[in-house]
Amino acid sequence: MLRRNALFALTLFSIAIVMVITGCQPSAASLIESGDANFASKNYDQAIADYTKAIDIDSESAVAYASRGRAYYNEEMYDEALADLNKAIELDPNSYTAYFRRGYAYTLQTL
């Protein structure tokens, strides 16, 4: 009986640990906020990393793609920027921000 109780307690403890670890994972929104803060600090590489993690969590986030596209064109990575901005527009055809940034990226690419 004691062994069964110990096994049950260990099982509950393991489940609790998994729940805590899962709950500690950042959300896509929090990663986008972190990316925005890094972008504002002109830390574009870290902003790109944050937006990429947000996309890994929520691959349907037009905001994450549009934000990463902006960071890419600030790093003069125009092909990557345009790919992300096109994806943002595909995900949200009403995103004026993505259209504006795509136009800006095209302009920068031709300079």
In short:
With 111 residues, this protein is an all-alpha fold.
Detailed description of the structure:
With 111 residues, the protein is an all-alpha fold. The protein has a single domain, classed as Tetratricopeptide repeat domain (Serine Threonine Protein Phosphatase 5, Tetratricopeptide repeat, Alpha Horseshoe). Helix content is 82%, strand content 0%. It has six helices and no strands. The chain has helices at 2-23, 28-40, 44-57, 62-74, 78-91, 96-110. The protein is elongated, with a radius of gyration of 20 Å. The N and C termini lie far apart (77 Å). The mean pLDDT is 89.
Mind sketching the topology for me?
Layout: H1 2-23, H2 28-40, H3 44-57, H4 62-74, H5 78-91, H6 96-110
Helix pairs in contact: 2-3, 2-4, 3-4, 4-5, 4-6, 5-6
